[in-house]
Amino acid sequence: MHVEVQLAKTWMQRTYKHPLFRQLSAISDDSHKPHAHSTMAQMSITEDAIKAALTERLKATHVEVQDMSGGCGQSFTALIVSPEFAGKNSLKRHRLVNGALKDEISSIHAWSAKCMTPEEWNNEKAATGGHEGPPLDGTEGGRVEGVKE
Predict the structure, then answer these.
(1) What is the mean pLDDT of each run of 10 residues along the chain (149 residues)?
(2) pTM of the predicted model, to two decimals?
(3) Among 6, 43, 84, 137, which residue has the fewest nearby CB atoms (within 10 Å)?
(4) How is 53-83 classified by DSSP, letter by letter?
(5) What domains are there in the chain, each with its CATH number?
(6) What Gene3D superfamilies does its record include (predicted)?
(7) From start to end of the chain, where are the E strands?
């Protein structure tokens, strides 16, 4: 029994000295203080807020955002046209967008984006006779509906 008690004491001493434990303790000790991420999570994300953030942070020349969740602000799709995408492949474009919307994306459930340069967007408009808008795959009329049997 004495050995078990000593092992438990040793484990507790090592645990409480570990840097991760100290970080967790500091977070829990500050739980009464407002954090930037909790403020973002509490505020409602809107189409206009996402559009403004993309326009400002990516110097986007055209942004279309659609809330596919029926207005609850949990599922968005977007068409983003920015010169910042020039010379970047699809993965790098999406990483750029996700980085620009880091706080917003962490507060929502689903996000998809179509990223184009101004030249690509103009070419697509010319080819289709209009513009395609944000991707609406998996939706019914641009809205995510419940699972149907």
Answers:
(1) 61 58 48 44 78 97 92 90 97 97 92 96 86 64 53
(2) 0.62
(3) 137
(4) HHHHHS--SEEEEEETTSSSSSEEEEEEE-G
(5) 45-128 (3.30.300.90)
(6) Phosphatidylinositol 3-kinase Catalytic Subunit, Chain A, domain 1
(7) 62-67, 75-81, 110-116
